[in-house]
Amino acid sequence: MIDAVGNPQSLLVLGGTSDIALATAKQYAEARPLRIILADRPEESERLNEAAETLRKTGSTVSILTFDARKAETHAEVIDKAFADGDVDVTLIAFGIQGDNEKGWTDVEAARAVADINYVAPVSLGVLLAAKLRKQGHGNVAVMSSPAGERARRSNFVYGSSKAGLDVFFTGLTYALEEHGVKVTVVRPNFTHTKLTEGMKAAPMANTPESVAKVIVDGVRKGSPLVYAPAQFRFVMSILRHVPRAIFRRLPI
């Protein structure tokens, strides 16, 4: 269970080598030692082991699971293993790919990769997590969305479309799980300096993994259904959503 000041006893990270996810796990672990499950692809085993060793230095218990977003047939087994040692207080869904937008709308396999990893897999996991959390009667899910899903842009509409679907599903899940004592937090970070965005031009109001992690921890503690990082980006998107299409498509964003 999460204690009175918002610190969980257990944390599941799907996408366990994500810079933002690891910064979040570290913030939780520095507040109090906890049980952490890191799940990611077999190819990330070296980084997973390094992350686990770092987190164990906080006094936390850390285990590792092999997880492949594109193998939906394995998702139920992964979730069963994650919950095998007891309740999970907080789950962070933090995996995803940016993809090449031009390939994404001209190459079927490139488009499917973005859709499968950013939308289909999180929905599959969301359904499985919802069943576990309803049964245990408590818990929080935080999922990494993006402002890119709020309005289509020429530069990244394939990625944005996958995040739009994810965002709507988990926003709806906040309503569906509320009566079961389970809360869902959708996280919409602005550009963040991570390995996912390495080599890309930074946008104004850019984040660090640590600043996004703080927003996630605070959002989960408050039970917020939606958070932006930084918080003031909410107002930026509120304006951009209402810019006429003829003008919006010409903006250098």
Keywords:
single chain, 253 residues, alpha/beta, Rossmann fold, seven-stranded parallel sheet, 9 helices, 7 strands, oxidoreductase, oxidoreductase activity
Radius of gyration, whole Å: 18 Å
CATH third-tier fold name = Rossmann fold
What shape does the CA trace take? globular
Low-confidence stretches: none
Please state the structural category.
alpha/beta
Number of strands: 7
With helices defined by DSSP (H or I, 4 residues minimum), what is the helix count? 9
Biggest β-sheet, characterized?
7 strands, parallel
Helix percent reads 40-55%
Number of domains: 1
Short note summarizing the structure:
The protein has 9 helices and 7 strands; from the N terminus they run βαβαβαβααβαβαβαα.
Descriptive report:
With 253 residues, this protein is of the alpha/beta class. It has a single domain (10-249), classed as 3-Layer(aba) Sandwich (Rossmann fold), CATH 3.40.50. The chain has helices spanning 19-31, 45-56, 75-82, 101-104, 108-136, 157-178, 209-222, 233-240, 245-248; strands at 10-14, 35-40, 61-66, 90-93, 139-144, 182-189, 226-229. It has a 7-stranded parallel β-sheet with strand order 3-2-1-4-5-6-7, with helices on both faces. The radius of gyration is 18 Å and the shape is globular. InterPro entries: NAD(P)-bd_dom_sf, SDR_fam. One of its GO terms (molecular function) is oxidoreductase activity.
